[in-house]
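# nightly structure sweep
# worker-07 picked up a monomer target from the shared queue
# config: single-sequence mode, recycle default, output format = structure tokens
# input follows
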Amino acid sequence: MRYIEPELLERVNTWLTPAFDEKTQTHIKDLIASNPTELKESFYKDLEFGTGGMRGVMGMGTNRINKYTLGRNTQGICNYLHTVFPGVKHKVAIAFDCRHNSKTLAKVVADVFSANGVQVFLFEDLRPTPELSFALKHLNCHCGIVLTASHNPPEYNGYKVYWQDGGQLVPPQDAEIIKEISNLDYAEIKFEANEENITYIGKEVDDVFIEASIKNGSFESATEAKEDFNIVFTSLHGTSITIFPETLKRAGYNNVHIVEDQREPNGDFPTVKSPNPEEPEALKMALELAEKKNADIVIGTDPDADRLGVAVRDLDGKMILLNGNQTMVMMTDFLLKQWKKENKLKGKEFVATTIVSTPMVDILAKAYNTDCKIVLTGFKWIAKLIKDFPNLDYIGGGEESFGYMVGDFVRDKDANTASLLAIEIAAQAKAKGSSFYKELINLYVEHGLYKEHLISLTKKGIEGAQEIKQMMIDARNNPLEEINGEKVVLIEDYQSSIAKNLQSHEETTIDVPKSNVLIYYTENGTKIALRPSGTEPKIKFYISVNTELENASEFKTKEQELDAKMEAIIKDLKLN
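# output follows
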């Protein structure tokens, strides 16, 4: 037998005990004999919860998604439910996406809950992640689980945990549940289902979810405006096909063209390199259909339908993909305008965004005398704000990674409602002789032209994780003093919770939970943030630049100036 480090061997040997089935044991013995590299990757650590739950490659081992790692998670949650909600019948909702093994793994999770006396509401087939958040609250459940890896590659799957309020796990529940899971032996998992505790759900929840989406994302555009508006939609082989076409129909939008080659849910995502609406390539087929149909807008959603890509026609009539910051700015302004029109802005409302998103959201909120709360990356933190500030009304909020949450009926980013809202904005603009893009430029004239860009560096495996760790260490040990000729005036380190003003040398405390994020601000308003991804083997660099825009006619020139500045920054940071 090849040499295996003692600590790794101890972890591997656990999976060769009777708690694991014969197929699993045989697979691991094969790895020991013939693939030590894969063996180490599979067992060198436990799969961890990140910003979007637990995601990983499917396979056998502690660092993989499989029935045992998810069974252990579920058993730990069962134990925790019995501790924090004693003497009641616990209820849980479970959903799953289009990925390989999602349906099978969802049933495994349901079995473990049912074996522990928990009443399970299991969706009969794949559904969008935001519908799980909605169903959890609608059915008065204690928690919810979604089997999804969002837009990760096909070999991935994942496990997202939601709590009573419909939001994802946040402190202190997350640490308490992780501790409960860590103390469990695999032999303690109850896999034998009690089918009497499992109820299948479907259309009855779909109907109320769709009606709630329309209530929150549609604002009574004139019928003729809706009839005149031309939409292309792609689900990118994902779950939104189960909900969004019907949502559009009930909202009064009938001029809809679906990308047929991407309609069928498929965990291989055969027509795209990556089912990620952030990437223009993912929407290539939709953009081609938009030209054939002379569409006004293109909507594409990721596999679990919590994020959306939006393409609209620019000043030259060309379809272009907007970034998440641009759609977030437009949605936030539209909602604020709507609330103001309805006399609902009373000084007790707020919008929300994240530390790596565009600063323009905060500027918009100030223009409406409304509070803007800025939190860590991840919609679990935006959802937590609603719990933390029960006396304030939440309007809407988003982050740069193409997600938006309209109102609090769903406590996570929701492509169904956000897509409807984007269409509503564009339809109203067209009806008055304008367009989504022209209205965006008008916002830039009023509040300043902001432009953002994201660079993600992929670093896979053990070596990649170490490289990312070292890059963050180096950034902290050798902080930048200048970026592209601009002096750095402020550095925020969310790991140490310290913001340091490099001019006054004053240090202040950052009042948010600790996170591995570093943000630089320059004298001219440039903002550079870097952080390791919480869901992918990547380190991300977020760049934001801005300038004044006196009138719409200067837009193209000013945008080109910001593009050139962005390129110079990327070159200066050696990111190209």
